[in-house]
What we know:
Nuclear Transport Factor 2, Chain: A, single chain, six-stranded mixed β-sheet, elongated, alpha+beta, 6 strands
Amino acid sequence: MKKLCMILTLALILCLMVGCQDKEAMKAQAEVEEQNKEIVKKIIEGLNQKNADIYKELYAPDYAWYFPSNNPEPLSREEESEFVKLIWDGFPDMKWSIEELIAKEDRVIIRLIARGTHKGEFQGIPATGNKIESSIIFIAHVENGKVIDVREDADLLGMMQQLGMELKPKEKEK
């Protein structure tokens, strides 16, 4: 009977120790996830303030931007920075608003809405004066306080239609 009580006591102590460690690990993970969310929020704030230095500050030197509906090859942080400057030229009032923000482990997922007025040339399209609104899904991979890659996609077809572009079927060859 003494042995059984001792075994049960040790088992209880072991369970409590494991439970406390799990809580500490969960707390540490939650803190990292919150820090990662703050990094992504700071990126969006930087974009809204037309701060191209945000790329050097918060993106890893070997960062890659995957945006398959716009470019089949990943872009570097410098190339993405140049692309964003083209957006600012074409849509000087462009603002990105975070609609949803979720962090899980080393990933931050955000759903954004980009809104702006087409006042300058953008991707070969002369200024139309049209207002656009485009939804974006953005998945950032964050390690050691730096974004190492982003997987992004946006409703570019909807945006082009808002700019007055038309989608037509191909003409049949004669």
